[in-house]
From TrEMBL:
Keyword flag Oxidoreductase: yes
Keywords for the protein's UniProt record, in alphabetical order: Oxidoreductase
Protein name: NAD(P)-binding domain-containing protein
Species assigned in the record: Streptomyces virginiae
Domain Pyrroline-5-carboxylate reductase catalytic N-terminal, first and last residues per copy: 4-91
Length: 204
């Protein structure tokens, strides 16, 4: 599966590296243009390419948003993500380390409003990039990555990628309620849990 990653900071670059290591192809995009991604593409090899954000969305089968939350609205033309799985891996902050006040709404609810023809899944946003880089191949029980969304098939696709990366997919439910659990200020944000711990928490 070819995954588009929009945003190539520390977390986006880390995701690209572990996806390629797991046998996936990636299309990378950022706000500065594809030429700025030449070093990363060279590092990743033939499984990676770079494009402008709309081009990456067009070429990818699944798209992951790893940009600051405030840049999501208007980032892509809506047609570019029509009928595609759009993983919202962004985090909405109102200040350094403080969750944004969204009036009780989930940040992924807003992403789904901005891109109504996409199948939005909240995932890949709760783990620090240094943990993400190594935990999937570390010995011992798998750590959990969470999925929330309203389309079962889309969540299954994302869960398959999570498994490929060496993590355990754990479903937190619908996009609104499950997404709020994962976002900054939620009980699952930046809280590494093993699969057993995560399932126990979800079922409590």
């Amino acid at each position: 599966m070819r995954t588009g990653i929009i945003g190539t900071g520390r977390i986006g670059s880390t995701l690209a590296r572990i996806l390629v290591a797991a046998g996936h192809q990636v299309v990378l995009a950022n706000a500065r243009g594809p030429q700025t991604l030449d070093p990363l593409v060279a590092e990743l090899g033939r499984a990676a390419s770079a494009a402008h954000p709309a081009e990456a969305a067009d070429r990818a089968e699944l798209l992951v948003l790893m940009v600051p939350f405030e840049r999501v609205r208007g980032l892509l033309p809506p047609y570019a993500v029509q009928d595609k799985v759009l993983v919202d891996a962004t985090n909405a902050f109102g200040g350094p380390g403080a969750p944004a006040d969204l009036g009780g709404r989930g940040s992924s609810d807003l992403v789904a409003e901005w891109y109504p023809d996409a199948q939005v899944v909240k995932s890949l946003n709760t783990m620090h990039f240094e943990t993400l880089a190594v935990a999937g191949t570390a010995p011992g029980e798998r750590l959990a990555h969470f999925t929330a969304g309203d389309d079962v098939k889309s969540k299954e696709i994302v869960a398959g990628i999570i498994s490929d990366l060496g993590f355990a997919p754990v479903d937190t439910g619908p996009l609104h309620s499950g997404g709020i659990l994962q976002q900054p200020g939620g009980p699952l944000f930046n809280r590494p849990l093993t699969e057993a711990q995560a399932l126990a928490w979800i079922s409590h």
